[in-house]
Amino acid sequence: MTRYLVTGASGLLGLNMSLWLSQTHTVIGAIRQPELTGTPFEVVVTDLAEKGVAAKLVEQARPDVIIHCAAMAIVDDCESQPDLAQRVNGDLPGELAALAALRSIPMVHISTDAVFDGEKGNYREEDVPHPLSIYARTKLAGEQAVASANPQAIIARVNFYGFSLHGKRSLGEFFVNNLASGQSVNGFTDVLFCPLFVLDLSSILVEMVENHLQGLYHVVSSEELSKYDFAVRIARKFGLDEHRISPISVLQGGLKAARSPNLTLDTGKLRQALGHPTPDQDAGLEKFHQVYRNGYVQKLMAYANQNR
User: Which domains does the chain have, with CATH numbers?
Assistant: First the structure.
């Protein structure tokens, strides 16, 4: 049974990944705040942003694989705390990568499609990044630190959605929750992306590890769409009122940090490496709806530590 160390195990990807992996593997989930309880995997509360903590964690956890999901991921928060964003998103990944290289531990580092400026779209791995926000710049710094410290590590540029611990970390759940409660929402018609359902992403990342892939890959859906169209498809899949979705421009969104308009990524390199494409939007949204019907949201909520 493989021992996986998952950082950021209370976040959207980290929690879903840890729960999915724990069905068949041993998982040690590292979190910064004591916000999980009763999980089917071991939880370690530790602040990886502190110097030397990462080394202690790896030594104690003795993992066979490291999945580094922890990040400062709220884009506008990074604008107001650039030094912390650089520490968490830029420096820490390199430290973990060096530790993994020293111990010959396979590692996956989670990066983002936002490293591109979105001027052309359909980006390939060899295209030159041009990040627009502090979040994107620090995530690119993290990629570079990992590649320098550990060329054998997997760097996965991702965009994903799903259900999270408190229901506030995913664009997909934002649309579901607001539309289900009768609220109106906005959908950007001029922002294109390739979001992947989080449990599909979890499965693919493990498949990449098991196939001994190395280096940089775009790990997103094989199908692109606008954020407005994403909202409409969710409404239709969940039987919600799509007329409550207002098509607007991102320029009307009142966002603090700059957003890239076209973050569609080419997944050809990954498709060739694995021998199959990543799921399209219909496949992902069907699973998103299925877990919702099966009580997955309530299951996640049960793991939230109400005493923190």
Answer: 3-302 (3.40.50.720)
